[in-house]
Amino acid sequence: MGDVLICYSPQPKLAMSIKTIISVGLLILVPISFAADSLGWGTLTVFITSGLAIIPLAVWLSTATEEIAVVTGPSIGGLLNAVFGNATELIIAIVALKEGLVDIVKASITGSIISNLLLVMGLAMLLGGLRYKEQDFQPVLVRVNGSSMTLAAIAIILPTMVNYTSEGIEETAIRNLSLTVAVVLIVVYGLTLLFSLKTHSYLYDVGVADLETETSQKSSEVEHTPRTQNLWFWIGVLAASTITIAFESDIFVGVIEEAIQGLGLTPLFTGVILLPLVGGADQYVTAVSVAIKNNMGLSVSVAMGSSLLTALLVGPLLVILGIAIGQPMNLDFNPFEVVAVAIAVIVANLVSLDGRSNWLEGALLLATYIVLGAAFYFHPA
Fold first, then answer.
1. pTM listed for this prediction
2. With 0-12 CB in 10 A as exposed, 13-18 as middle and 19+ as buried, what is 277?
3. How far is CA 163 from each of CA 111, 216, 355, rounded to the nearest angstrom?
4. What share of the chain is helix, strand, coil (3-state, %, to 5)?
């Protein structure tokens, strides 16, 4: 879901209707993708069907996490979001890392940050702004998350700058620097959890008034359903979604190199643009849905929270995991990725610092994303 560090309130029930339509309708692609892979329907067919099949599974995983949070309460719900917030993107990245696609994995880290700050928040502000003249959210959340996001951007920039400002630096030095940075970021992530869940949790009660009616309805439903039965059902959905995503990711990653070569795409464009679109679909649906319901605070929280989760936890975990499985990955990114992340962080902070949004600001964020996407498409790397 990606709203970790920011908000742990149950999602609006009205938002779930859109999720349900997408998740149920696209589930047919799961058996189709399995058939395409086993029957040899062609690389491109397997690539497209498996990629699209991951989308409804990601939505179900997100939904299960939210439903479990309703039963278990905000504290445990917050921890669940911390674990499963970007689970789909993490699973895809782990499978790709295991296959040695390090460049694509690194690009997917920066791509997730960029897409959440520009595409997700841009869509939410644009569509929400078309329905409401202006929408408000708490500026304090933007300041807190903006500071953490700035640190994450610096952590991404520094290893790259060390490499490009040094002559003959050893790969071991870059790897050790990346490992050090990864550990620091994970510690920072732990501190942000402590801040948002314990010491300053009151700052993160986003949209409570707006969600009061929907939450009451959801709570009433839970009361009429045996708590244990409801909990175990959604735990089963969570487990099934996670396992199926792992299988689909294996199929998807298995043909990704051949598919992108056939399509004339670079690993850089694939990691930065395509993979976040596949793995982060649930975040797009949630952010846009709540924005249309005039809860821009929660929408901004989803976008910024997912970016922070990627930068402070997912990326660092992949660095450590890569070393553990013999596929070492460092934080020495393509210089253009570093520039793009810096642009995304700066633009997103500038647009959201005043605590108000409108459709034009959403359009500006989307325009920035499109320009960066075009640049990545034509980038020869």
1. 0.83
2. middle
3. 21, 54, 38
4. 80, 0, 15
Give the residue from 302, 283, 303, 308 showing the smallest Cα distance to 147: 308
Q: In DSSP terms, which residues pair with 357 in a beta bridge? A: 135
CB-based contacts of 40: which residues, under 8 Å, 6+ apart? none
The pLDDT assigned to 214 comes to: 44
Residue 279 confidence (pLDDT): 84
d(CA 3, CA 80): 11
Coil vs helix vs strand at 101: coil
| Residue 93 φ/ψ, nearest 5 degrees | -65, -40
Write down the domain spans for the chain.
13-378
What is the mean pLDDT for each group of 10 consecutive residues in the chain (381 residues)?
Answer: 42 50 81 92 92 88 80 65 77 91 91 93 92 84 79 84 81 89 90 80 54 44 52 87 92 91 90 89 81 85 85 91 89 89 90 88 95 93 67
Taking the C-alpha atoms of residue 290 and residue 296, their distance in angstroms, rounded to an integer, is 7
**Tokens at 163, concatenated:** 């490499």
CA 244 to chain centre: 18
